[in-house]
Amino acid sequence: MSQPAGLAPARTVTLQFNDNALLPLLLGDHDRHLARIEQGLGVRVSCRGNRVAIAGDPARVAAAQAALGGLWRRLERGEAVGRAEVEAAIRLADADADPRLPLADQPAIRTRRGAVGPRSAGQGAYIEALAAAEMVFAVGPAGTGKTYLAVAQAVAMLLDGKVDRIVLSRPAVEAGERLGFLPGDMKEKVDPYLRPLYDALHDMLPAEQVQRRMANGEIEVAPLAFMRGRTLAHAYVILDEAQNTTAMQMKMFLTRMGEGTRMVVTGDLTQIDLPPGVTSGLSDALGTLEGVGGIRVVRFGARDVVRHPLVARIVEAYEARDAAGAPVGAGPDATARHGRA
User: Fold this and answer.
1) Cα distance between residue 123 and residue 116, in whole Å
2) How far, in Å, CA of 159 to CA of 171, rounded?
3) Residue of 60, 118, 231, 281 with fewest CB within 10 Å of its CB?
4) Tens digits of per-residue pLDDT, 23-60?
5) What is the Rg, in whole angstroms, of the alpha carbon atoms belonging to the chain?
6) Residue 197 contacts residue 240 (beta carbons within 8 Å)
7) Helix, strand or coil for residue 258?
């Protein structure tokens, strides 16, 4: 049968894995890891003995080969391979993704709880920016690891003695009269807004270390309003949920930067909770500062979402609706009625 014009001929590659103790971990229960790679990369994968055959479009076969090779090297290093690692390997090896680096050379953040590596091409670019730049803006949808990786880099630099302290901040967008009616002292009032930052910290450090370092001032978690009038020197400073700052608040925060300090600003411009008519400080800062020397901007998309795969599809559905200009709250039937009106 002749190959249709313009299409690359199909290719088959056979990989051989000689460690029979690790092979079942690579394949997954009932070969579920192979099935997910097959589905995610659009190839046909079959296993016989210790050989895995991959067939399909040459670019897709190469991507699947890279994914399986990366997972195998994890197993050889004694690291776990589960669903999350398989999803990450698919994203990083996808033929349509940024092919900047081979999987084995992807950057990582070294912490005492192990290396925190990228699970998407966007995360790889972000980790590189965190290592190289004094100020980084990370913009994109929920679930892309913007806050988590920034906290990982902050903890790594604190433990290496490269900064003296970590300062984590978020705007409390309901901090006016509503906050005053919450029970407790000021810390208890603002803690609910800062909980995602605490969660990331506890993933990087033992609980007793977090408590001790917070008590001695090495780690500070505070609402944005507490930043006014301060100069933050030799610190790693993270502003989370920055889309909910005003332009004045953002300028105030950015100008707190002192000698030896690094800053990371994260946010999602599709989830702004400010009152109507108020410009987001994150949007204003990006328009003003992008291209300024020493500042890096990393933008994430739906393909960088590393939570449940359904989250990426949800993000894509909302993006498609916004691009089409459909009214908020309008399903297919409502959109049709809107068009007939």
Assistant:
1) 11
2) 27
3) 231
4) 999 998 988 999 888 888 889 998 888 899 999 888 88
5) 23
6) yes
7) coil
